[in-house]
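Deliverable D4.2, example record:
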Amino acid sequence: MEYIILDLEFNGTYSKHRHKFVNEIIEFGAVKCDEQLNIIETFSELIKPQISKKLNSHVSALTHITIDELKKSNNTFSHVMAKFRKFLGDGVLMTWSNSDVLVLIENYKYFYGNDKLPFMKYYVNLQKYCERAIGYHDKARQLGLSTCAEMLGITFEDDSLHRAYNDAELTAACFKALYDRELLQQFIYTCDDDFYRRINFKNFNICDLKDPNVDRKEMFFTCEKCGRRALRRSKWRLKNRSFRANFRCLRCRKDFEGRISFKQCYDHVDVTKKTAEVEHKEKRRRKNSEPKPKE
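Output generated by the structure prediction step:
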């Protein structure tokens, strides 16, 4: 089994021909690893833009790629794609998060009219794999590549980030440091119709309490101090895509606001709970009556 770790740099541009925005790929970078996760082959190619003749200033500043470099490469997407297909072979394609594989699908559809990658047999989202392997559980923020490398003690130069090959190589180092053969099997997807339905599914927050996917058994809060179940003292209200209500711990006499959100994913619902202090009217009155410091 060979593992091909791919990273892409792309330029957001508007296609007048298709009347829509497209993330046009401008650089491919990849490493091929054997079963011992040793790098045995590398791939690095720039692509001359075909949809837009201009390079987004943000992309240029982030990657330090210039439009002149891209033009000099004289590579078309089709030319580089043919070379990469041969490089990938029957290996497992891996990317850090699924954003790059979605951009690859977007470009393949734009240039070939096919919304599936016929050459991709197996796929792994290494961001999700590394989050599980390292025990990262922050639902509010996904694990970044540089953060993962820092947590693992892998050194890298900040200036080297945001170039396709360098990011692919750093991703490979994180993967090797966290390699677990049995765990990896849980993250390898066969690229069938279900895979494309899954990867194209857009997660969304459920904002209707009557939605059947809202688990009412989850709509409770416990006191952070004593651990006892708190009493709900108001009706649920929706604000900023989360359901909120006032709670009180009868033992600690502590009031707080409970906030719960339900995010619909492809095959499950993520539940996130948070609490916030409730400011009493008397406390607010005293706070507002205090003289403001003179400037």
